């Protein structure tokens, strides 16, 4: 590629492709479940650093919307919608760019699995115990966009786990539920 020719693959997709390549290597060595857990452990600190500061906003939707320009600069088309109730602060993430599909395409992989989203949601819930996440729709399942629902109780402290990658006390069990 010439130096003055822009890279046709957005930064976020290159990063997702590398993560999917790593998952495939780990899966070949350790099996799918262990590979996923290793990836979640690696991603937890990143999710705490990325999402943690956004939780201080009045609502999840407002906080997450602050990331839209950054995500767009990385090549992702995403939006957030406030779906809060009286007791719960909640937001829908509408992901037009499916990193799982795009990464699989870049790798030339026939398998179109939602492992990257699964890892990110589990890591987010592990890093931020006040947050729950649920998959409502996925492009890997043939839907037109990916939709994720994030929520926290209105009385929840927006704190981040002390050191979730090390202490292991914050389980994502019961969070990151999947509509499979």
UniProtKB/TrEMBL annotation:
Residues 158-180 are annotated as: Disordered. Residues 169-180 have a biased composition (Basic and acidic residues). This is L-2-amino-thiazoline-4-carboxylic acid hydrolase.
